[in-house]
């Protein structure tokens, strides 16, 4: 089962969209396994967006993400990474389809209200799942990642003990 890291960005929190955004993932049928309000610091923002370091908008992106509290979430389910990206919509909200979060609730790329992991591997990196699995099952991180680069696998947004494993009462009504 996959995990994805979903984050309501500071504009989503300031605009009172936290409940609306959580609700979309809840109603879809995914399982919430982690949730917190959090003031992101510069070092974490830089690590999270390190692939965009060379982009011209990178400094403003770091300022944006650290400008106020964010809501950090882990959602779990079969195919949740790609499905969450569809629910979120295109990076540029003006190009995002109506019915998607960005399509319905935002107008600018630099204020696009929500983040979602772009691959199962990044889902693991961003949720800290690698560290949890390592603690519980002794998995070899370098083998699991396929890169051998352990530094890229440090848990980003959640620490051990912050995620909940549980079975929602509605589970048999969502999956046959
Ligand atoms: P995330 O889910 O937040 O990672 O968005 P994404 O995967 O749809 O886009 P990407 O990873 O390419 O970019 C990360 C974030 O950087 C975007 O969500 C925007 O907030 C910001 N960003 C990307 N491109 C631009 C841009 O051209 N201008 C500005 N101001 N911000 C940008
Ligand atoms: Mg991205």
Automatic annotation (TrEMBL):
Its EC number is 2.7.4.6. Its cofactor is Mg(2+). Keywords: ATP-binding, Kinase, Nucleotide-binding, Transferase. It is an enzyme of class 2 (transferase). The active site is at 115 (pros-phosphohistidine intermediate). It catalyses: a ribonucleoside 5'-diphosphate + ATP = a ribonucleoside 5'-triphosphate + ADP; a 2'-deoxyribonucleoside 5'-diphosphate + ATP = a 2'-deoxyribonucleoside 5'-triphosphate + ADP. ATP binds at residues 9, 57, 85, 91, 102, 112. It comes from the Eukaryota. This is Nucleoside diphosphate kinase. It comes from Gossypium davidsonii. The chain holds residues 92 to 267 of 267 of the full protein.
């Amino acid at each position: 089962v996959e995990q994805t890291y979903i984050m309501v960005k500071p504009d989503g929190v300031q605009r009172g969209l936290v409940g609306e955004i959580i609700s979309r993932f809840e109603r879809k049928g995914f399982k919430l396994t982690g949730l917190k309000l959090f003031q992101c610091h510069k070092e974490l923002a830089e690590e999270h967006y390190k692939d965009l370091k060379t982009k011209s908008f990178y400094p403003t992106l770091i300022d944006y993400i650290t400008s106020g509290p964010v809501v950090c979430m882990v959602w779990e389910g079969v195919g949740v990474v790609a499905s969450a990206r569809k629910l979120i919509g295109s990076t540029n909200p003006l190009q995002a389809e109506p019915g998607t979060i960005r399509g319905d609730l935002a107008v600018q790329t630099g204020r696009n209200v929500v983040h979602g992991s772009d691959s199962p591997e990044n889902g693991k990196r961003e949720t800290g799942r690698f560290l949890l699995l390592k603690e519980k099952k002794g998995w070899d991180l370098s083998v699991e990642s396929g890169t051998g680069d352990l530094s890229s696998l440090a848990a980003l947004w959640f620490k051990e003990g912050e995620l909940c494993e549980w079975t929602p009462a509605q589970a048999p009504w969502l999956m046959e």
